Amino acid sequence: MGKRRNGYPLKLERWYERKMDQLIRQWQKQANQFVELHLKPYVTGGTKVLHDAANDDPNWANSIQQTLKLFSLTMDDTQDERTIVSLVTRWLISINNFSLQKAKKYTVTVGKEEGTIAVNPLMGETVLSNYTKGKIAENTALIKTMKHRYIDQLKTDIYQNINHGGGVTDISHAINYRTGMSLRHATLIANDQTGKALSQLDAYRSQKAGYTKYVWRSMEDGRVRPKHQSLDGKTFKYNDPSGGDNGLLPGEPIRCRCYAEPI
């Protein structure tokens, strides 16, 4: 197999994933610290709600509920949201710069005016500026939703563990399990959203520069799905509802690392 094509920003996808992983590991650390500081007195050694003498305090159940409300408040801090917005903005700027460099390369190749495609979506042109704001909001919402799901599912896990006599170790296992699920979700977000962002930025720049067609290019590695292997090297028109993958451009289908080469 020859050298892998470099029209897709794989390093940026992996950077985005690593940064989300760091956020998730921080959530895991916060959850473990909270359990150690606030929940441990209620569950040390395991405690069955209906049979354990440790639960004869009439306020015991209410104390657990109040503690888990505090858990939600502790985990869902505003500083984390600012961190997420900053991360997503850096990622999208990097994707834009990658797209811009490709556009310049194609411009030189065919002798078009560079000014027609060298557009920074964070400055100037309204269409790209609006797209950028929307994409930042979308990805911020995806990560925030992932975090809220992490918190809510952990609260359910903790309730279930307490009701079944589980102790701190069982809750720790639940935290590890939910963390693993979130890490896998982050992989999906990084892959899917990088492909979609690149696809839309590339398509806008290419059409603005006067291109009407593109060649479907895959990464030519073992992860390319069979349908996209069959599309590799074929030519399609932009905005063709029957072109590409059922009307979708390279990079738009879920978890697609293919890209368009304008011609």
What does this protein structure show overall?
The chain has a three-stranded antiparallel beta sheet. The chain is mainly alpha-helical and 263 residues long. It has helices at 10-43, 60-75, 78-110, 126-163, 168-208, 226-231; strands at 213-217, 235-237, 259-262. Residues 48-53 and 113-121 have low confidence and may be disordered. The protein is built from six helices and three strands, in the order H-H-H-H-H-E-H-E-E. It is 64% helix and 5% strand. The protein starts with 9 loop residues before the first helix and ends with a strand. Helix 3 (78-110) packs parallel to helix 5. The protein has one domain (10-211). The longest helix is centred in the C-terminal third of the chain and has 41 residues, at 168-208.
